[in-house]
Design a protein that fits this description.
Radius of gyration: 25 Å
Strand order of the largest sheet: 2-1-3-4
Shape: rod-shaped
Helix content: 40-55%
Strand content: 15-25%
Oligomer: single chain
Distance between the termini: 78 Å
Largest sheet: 4 strands, antiparallel
Length: 165
Amino acid sequence: MDEKKYTLDDIETLRSKTGVGYEEAVALLEKYDGDIARALVELEKSGKLNRDGLFSSSNRGKAEDFLSRWWRAGCETRVIVERKGETLINLSALFMILALILGWKLIIAAAVLALILGCHVRVRLPEALKKAGPEAPQPEPEAEKAEADEEKKDDQDGYHTITIE
């Protein structure tokens, strides 16, 4: 009988670091005589791992990737309500959407009241969401300078801000 050069702990280590199944972990360890490092290198070369050692997003379904991107964008996008320079509300857009769905009458009434009382509502978009696609309208030349000045302020913290007054 052929002596194995890896243990069950080696299989578990490879699985915990990469997320591969038992069958694939055993096959890799057999191929490389129990060398976990070489098994990891092969998984990385084949595109099954990203730099962090986790399953890459290319191995997940497109729907899961889509939902993951929207979840992150919803958490990073902030809705900020200010009055006289003081921040009254600073919540994620995801929370605001959920609140709007569950209590839309209350949210609409609060938004109208906030605007009547002179509050400013800002939406801070992460830089990744700000990038416009090719179908975006081109700005007029006069607006370019004002927009460039606004972007300079916004680039300090990596966010783009939309203000409603």
